[in-house]
Amino acid sequence: MLNADALKQLSQLKTDIRSSKEFAEGRVRGSNGKFGFVELDDGREAFLPPNEMERVFPGDRVRVSLSEENKGKLAAELDALLDSQLDYLVGQYVQRGQGHFIQPTQNGLSRWIFLPPKARGKAQPGEFIACKVNRHPFKDGRAQAKVETVIGKPDMPGIEHAYVVAQFKLPEQFGTGAQKQADTIAERLSKVTSERTDLSKLGFATIDAETTRDMDDALAVSSRDGGWTLHIAIADPSSVIDENSPLDKEAFNRAHSQYLPGETLPMLPRNLCENLFSLVPGELRPALVIHIDIDSDGTIGNSRYEFAAIRSQHKLSYEQVSRFIEGDDSAVPQEQQDSLRNLAAVYEARAAYRASHSLAMEDRPDYEILLNDQRKIEHIEKQERNIAQRMVEEAMLATNISMGGKLAKIEQGCFSVHLGFREERMGEVRSLLKELLPEHAEADLGQLEHYLSLVKHLENHEEPQMKNLLAVLKRMLRPGQLDNKVGAHLGLGLEAYATVTSPIRKYNDLHNHRVLRAAALGEKASTLADDKIESLQESLIRGRQANRALEQWLYAQFIEKKVGQEFTGKITLVNGAGIGVRLDDFGIDGFVRMNGDKKNLPAFDGKHLVLTHNEKRFHLEQEVSVKVASVDVDKRRIAFELNAEKTEAADAAQK
């Protein structure tokens, strides 16, 4: 037994050892294996071995002690759990012997979580379930969860949709208060509409996909000396949905209408967004009507807006309008033909103007996913965007640019901001420019003028090296974001941009309608606080993640039936392991692994995103030919093999 002096010495030794260690705080990041990492607050990264990773979840905030391993790499040992936000899991109920677990699909969480007997409810092995985490593993590595919801069996029709909705907590049902309010909207809407000026004589019509029911804008274009006047009528839910009312709170929580393959989760109840607010032909509807003068050279001139009422003449489809523009006069009603010809002229003028003065978005094909009775992919239809879609898009852009300018002047609203390159990537950006375009290397690329100059230069350059540079630089851009302060949208090449054209689909547009109404009355609307902007942004990101997760699951099932078949595609990703390829026919992404043979590893140029393997170079946007090699549906992984001969032929043809 140790005496008092020995115990004191041992305690002092422990204190000395602890004081000699380096401690740091950071956030846990998982991996596909049993190990993980801690992304430290100072920007460093430390390896977390499997025995330590067992005690934490991805996203946990921890304090760790650091040690240096081989080649100067840092290793972490857990010291304290500071915060854990992972309290909800979705996955499959699995049983191994007497053990019952949930196998979750949480990114970076590659282990099973124990389900105690009393926590299993009525769930059965094999079913997909949603669980609450009721025991964190930090103390002893033994996490536990409790079943909250049984999502369904793997063979249930539409299980993929139900699973993703549960995984990302997408709201499906509207609350009682919102439904009650929705039931009273019709009477109030009728009163509001009857008190407004009727502008139907301008000859509005909606132009949408054939299946669209939530029609939130209608167009009419009249000619004038020196150009045209674009009249756009936008559905006006702001007139009857008060801020902080039950419907408003539901719309804010959803942030936007979620369009999943074969399914829509609307921001507002369907009887509102598809009926009472929708600009249905022949029905008088309240609307925000914006009048924008556009000169023959595409310049946006004066604009004004008013809260009025309109009756759309027709619901036109993109197909109808395209046929008309291409010469088929019978495709659309006579009374719409002059307006559509004017809209086509506006499109030509504005597209030319933006190509010269701002930035045009890349024209990529759309892919329509058609589902069967089991709600799995029956067919994927590649759709090149037609002239009608471009015409409508240009009208929407002009409207949002014009109203964004008005909101910028009063310094109120919810703005769409794009700040250009990621701050942490600016060193790489400048290094590339010093090598290839030194005249742009020292410019302040956060300023619209300099960013525009750089991108325009690269867009107009014909050399493959410069085309590849543009593709590489685009991988270093930040995503767009919402902001309650005015900021440039570098991606569009604009000083200010705020969307107003989809208030029954997007909450930020609904908010901007309220700001415009208040301004018209000489008042000031409430500002969306920073925390609300952040919440909207998080909802939008979660919606995009949900859509990608569902598509990838359905894509894996679909392409599994095509293993062994060959397709063409373009390279969308280059790293040290191989290349990511998107198939031209289906828009499906897969990976060509090239680092399987340790005796013949590829050479990766991370600066220029070029991979060299077997004396062949691969870069972004390059056309390649691949074969579907294998598919792991459970892990949503699609593997391709390169057809070297056909790829080389395609590359030669491009040159």
Give the helix tally: 17
Number of strands: 30
**Helix fraction?**
25-40%
How large a portion of the residues is in β-strands, by DSSP E?
Answer: 25-35%
Strand order of the largest sheet: 1-2-3-5-4
What structural class do the secondary elements suggest? Answer: alpha+beta
Mean pLDDT: 93
What coarse outline follows from CA principal-axis ratios? globular
Largest sheet: 5 strands, mixed, barrel
Radius of gyration: 28 Å
Number of domains: 5
**Low-confidence runs of at least 5 consecutive residues:** none
Q: Oligomeric state of the chains?
A: single chain
- What is the CA–CA distance across the termini? 83 Å
What is the topological layout?
Blueprint: H1 4-20, E1 22-29, E2 36-40, E3 45-48, H2 50-53, E4 61-68, E5 74-83, E6 88-96, E7 99-104, E8 113-114, E9 128-135, E10 144-152, H3 159-167, H4 176-183, H5 185-194, E11 206-208, E12 217-224, E13 227-235, H6 246-254, E14 258-260, E15 263-265, H7 270-276, E16 284-295, E17 300-311, E18 315-317, H8 318-325, H9 337-357, E19 366-371, E20 377-383, H10 387-410, E21 415-417, H11 426-436, H12 438-441, H13 448-459, H14 464-474, E22 481-483, H15 507-520, H16 530-560, E23 566-575, E24 578-583, E25 589-593, E26 603-605, E27 610-613, E28 616-619, E29 623-632, E30 637-642, H17 644-654
Give an overview of the whole structure.
The chain has 655 residues and is α+β, with helices and mostly antiparallel strands. It has five domains: 22-83, Nucleic acid-binding proteins (OB fold (Dihydrolipoamide Acetyltransferase, E2P)); 88-154, OB fold (Dihydrolipoamide Acetyltransferase, E2P) (Beta Barrel), CATH 2.40.50.640; 182-406, no CATH class; 420-477, no CATH class; 562-654, OB fold (Dihydrolipoamide Acetyltransferase, E2P) (Beta Barrel), CATH 2.40.50.140. It has 17 helices and 30 strands. The strands form nine sheets. It has a five-stranded mixed β-barrel with strand order 1-2-3-5-4. The longest helix is centred in the C-terminal third of the chain and has 31 residues, at 530-560. The N and C termini lie far apart (83 Å). The mean pLDDT is 93.
